[in-house]
Amino acid sequence: MSAPTTARATTPAEDRSQVLGEFRDIRSRGRWRFRLALLGPAFVVAVAYVDPGNVATNVEAGARTGYMLVWVVVLANVMALLVQYLSAKLGLATGRNLPEQCRELAPRWLSRLLWAQAELVAMATDLAEFAGAAVGLSLLFGMPIPLAAVVTAVVSFAVLACQQRGCRAFELAIMALLLLVLAGFAYDLLTVGRQSPADAMAGLVPHLSGGTTALLAAAIIGATVMPHAVYLHSALTQHRVRTDRPGDRRLLLRYLRIDCTLGFTLAGAVNLGMLCLSAALFRHTESGDLDAITAAHDDLGRTVGGGAAMAFAVALLASGISSASVGTYAGQVVMRGFLRRRIPLFARRTLTMAPALLILCAGLPVTATLVLSQVVLAFGIPFALAPLVVITRRRDLMGPLANRPATTAAGALVCALVICLNAYLVVTMVQGS
Questions:
Q1: Rounded to a whole number, what is the largest CA-CA distance in the chain?
Q2: Long-range contact list for 250-257, CB < 8 A, 24+ apart?
Q3: DSSP letter (8 states) at residue 288
Q4: Does the N terminus or the C terminus of the chain have fewer Cβ atoms within 10 A?
Q5: Are 343 and 186 in contact (CB under 8 A)?
Q6: Residue 417: which of 99, 83, 55 has the closest Cα?
Q7: pLDDT bucket at 105, cuts 50 / 70 / 90
Q8: How far apart are CA 361 and CA 377, in angstroms?
Q9: Residue range 205-260, pLDDT digits in tens
């Protein structure tokens, strides 16, 4: 009987050869296949930017304020583009994701604090995703909300199973769902008509008029610049294509910019379309205490036709399923990065979806609950964004891909704007109580 063989440790030269071999293999596929192979992570993350929380906040904003908060949607998506670019660049430059860097660089107590708030934010995210998908199933099939939430969990696990076949299969599944969301809302926007371009342009002028608009503005930003998406993007790029040659890294960074620009421009267009659709639907309607999502679906069916109403429900369902899968993936990244621990997906999904199921079973207003969950996300943004800006400016970690002073200043400005808006919301809420 032959003696068992032991794995031989590879030398640095062999590791470098393997890394360069991976990059050469991708480049050898041809120009267009090479380009397409580098696209994908931003589209996965962009799903979080069109989840049911976005649907709720944008529809609610359009129903109650018309086009007044168009500027917030545009600003939030510009901020998101910068933030996600920094996160993706961190993974590319260091080979580590943001939670891993925080664990290594921050004191233990601070790392645990960041992990705890990230888990709370994950629960708020799950609430939005499950509630939205449950409402979509209910609108389509008349399914009870609690049962619809359980069905959403099962389907999200099926999408996550694509990860077992490689990251590309997972990315393609998520991209297909993202395109379905885009198609649904684009169809509704085109069939409804009744748009007011002049009012939409006037909405680009920054303006807040009290507690309700401040709450909706915070919810829009929280639904767009989502903390778990910031953590996830760095994980999607950290091992995607490996190379240590400066020229190759600059090429990868170029395609990373293209990926982010395409993915988040698409997500921004969907968000803007949601708000404009709602503003057109409720233009001559007193919003009152209506549930905006259900009312929008009913109004589409009544004024345009069943096809438009079905497209709205399908888009809402697709956004819930796709974002639930991405959210679960992000939760694993957070726990493994901050704590070096990993629990089974089923156990994690059960723990994080429990609060969502309890709230849905309690019969609380769905749209209002979704909006409040996005406000919670807005308060979690600085905890992810501040470490990201600080780390990506460090040349000892990022090498030649470290931020330029102008990029660091822009990132710090985004963080300051979010903090100021959160503070303004707290003041207006206290004064109004």
A1: 85
A2: 250/400, 252/38, 252/92, 253/89, 253/92, 253/401, 255/35, 255/38, 255/39, 256/38, 256/42, 256/85, 256/88, 256/89, 256/92, 257/85
A3: T
A4: N
A5: no
A6: 83
A7: very high
A8: 22
A9: 887 776 678 888 888 888 788 888 899 899 988 877 666 676 677 878 888 888 88
What backbone phi and psi angles, to 5 degrees, belong to 140? Answer: -80, -45
| DSSP track, 25-69 | HHHTT-HHHHHHHH--HHHHHHGGGGSHHHHHHHHHHHHHHTTTT
Q: Indicate the residue type of 383.
A: F
Cα atoms in the Cβ-side hemisphere of radius 13 Å centred on 196: 18
The more confident residue out of 28 and 2 is 28
Q: Do 313 and 136 touch, CB atoms closer than 8 A?
A: yes
C-beta pairs of 297-305 under 8 Å, 24+ apart in sequence: 297/139, 300/188, 300/192, 303/192, 304/188, 304/191, 304/192, 305/191
CA distance 196 to 360: 36
Task: Answer yes or no: are the C-beta atoms of 271 and 58 closer than 8 Å.
Answer: yes
pLDDT in tens, 6-25: 444 444 443 444 444 455 56
d(CA 131, CA 151): 12
Show the DSSP H helices in 165-305 as ranges.
Answer: 167-192, 197-202, 211-224, 227-237, 246-281, 292-303
- Which tokens hold the place of 79? 């901020």
Quote helix, strand, coil % in the chain, to nearest 5.
80, 0, 20
Q: From 252, 253, 232, select the one nearest 328 (Cα to Cα).
A: 232
Tokens at 77, concatenated: 């998506």
Query: Tell me, what amino acid is at 205?
Result: V
123 in Cβ contact with 352 (< 8 Å): yes
